[in-house]
Design goal:
This protein is an alpha+beta fold. The chain contains 2 helices and 5 strands, in the order ααβββββ. It has a 5-stranded antiparallel sheet, covered by helices on one side. The longest helix is centred in the N-terminal third of the chain and has 20 residues, at 25-44. The radius of gyration is 15 Å and the shape is globular. It starts with a helix and ends in a 20-residue tail after the last strand.
Length: 128
C-alpha cells in the first residue's frame, strides 16, 4: 500500500533534519534529491521514471528549469515545486515553505550555522 504524499513529505523533512548540515547550495540540493528519492523508493513502490512525473504519483526532485534567483537575496535560490517553495542558500541552508499556507515545513542552517535568510547581503557594511 502506498503511503500518502503528506506522510512521505514528513519523512523527507525528518530525514533532512537528521542529515549532516550541508556546506554549499549544490551539496544541499543533492542531499534533498537523494533523501526524496530514497523515501519515494521505500514508501511508494513506484519506479523512478522522469518521463512519468505528472502521472505516476511519485515525487521527483526539482529540475533546473524550476530554479530561480531570489530578489534582494543573491546568495539564495528558489526551487519551485508543485506544493512547496524550497529556498537554498549558498551556505547549504534550506527552508521549505508550503505554497498555500506559507508555513515553514523545514528550516535548517548550513554548516556555518546560518539560516537561509541570515546570509550577508552585498550592501552589508558590518565588515568595514
Amino acid at each position: 500500500m502506498e503511503v500518502p504524499k503528506s506522510q512521505r513529505l514528513q519523512e523527507v523533512y525528518r530525514r533532512l533534519a537528521l542529515a549532516p548540515a550541508a556546506e554549499t547550495f549544490t551539496e544541499m540540493r543533492d542531499q534533498l534529491a537523494d533523501v526524496l528519492n530514497a523515501v519515494e523508493d521505500q514508501l511508494t513502490g513506484v519506479p523512478y521514471d522522469r518521463r512519468r512525473w505528472q502521472t505516476d504519483g511519485r515525487l521527483y526532485p526539482v529540475q533546473d528549469d524550476n530554479v530561480y534567483g531570489v530578489d534582494g537575496h543573491p546568495d539564495v535560490r528558489l526551487l519551485r515545486a508543485r506544493g512547496s517553495m524550497i529556498y537554498i542558500g549558498d551556505n547549504g541552508a534550506i527552508e521549505i515553505q508550503d505554497v498555500v499556507s506559507g508555513a515553514v515545513d523545514l528550516s535548517k542552517p548550513g554548516s556555518d550555522g546560518r539560516g537561509v535568510w541570515e546570509l550577508a547581503q552585498p550592501d552589508d557594511r558590518s565588515s568595514l
